[in-house]
Amino acid sequence: VGSYPGSMAYNPFMTGQPAYNGQSGGWKQANFDLSAYEGMLAQIMFETASDSSVQYAGWYIDDVGFTSTSWVNEYTQTVYIPSIAPDEVLEVSFPTWAPSDLGLVENVNVNYNAEATA
Question: Please, what's the largest Cα pairwise distance for the chain?
Fold first, then answer.
């Protein structure tokens, strides 16, 4: 999803490469599909280039994040309840658990899913 909005036209180092060019007039959000690199070690580079005719500070990058849309069902727990009355509330406790790669990332979202069938 997403791509660079322009290309470098007159820069000897990046001519024709997709790029942000000109002035944005403020912060812009950009999203890029990196699914082709899923499961691989990737190095992300932010590169700026200019020539002697441009006297600006460069560019500012803020709030970079990476997310995955794939789901890893790492833990399952099944609880069978033989019967429950209509409108009865039942509390079910599960053991404490954390993802195995929790120590590898700075922030992690853990999603829990519960299903009930009659």
Answer: 78
Tell me the pLDDT tens digit for each residue of 24-83.
777 878 888 888 887 788 888 887 776 677 777 777 888 888 776 666 666 677 777 778
Burial annotation 63-96 (CB, 10 A radius, 16+ → b, else e): eeeeeeeeeeeeeeeeeeeeeeeeeeeeeeeeee
β-strand partners of 6? 19
Residues 6+ apart with CB under 8 A from 108: 99, 102
- 18 pairs with which residues across the strands? 7
SS3 of 102, please?
A: helix
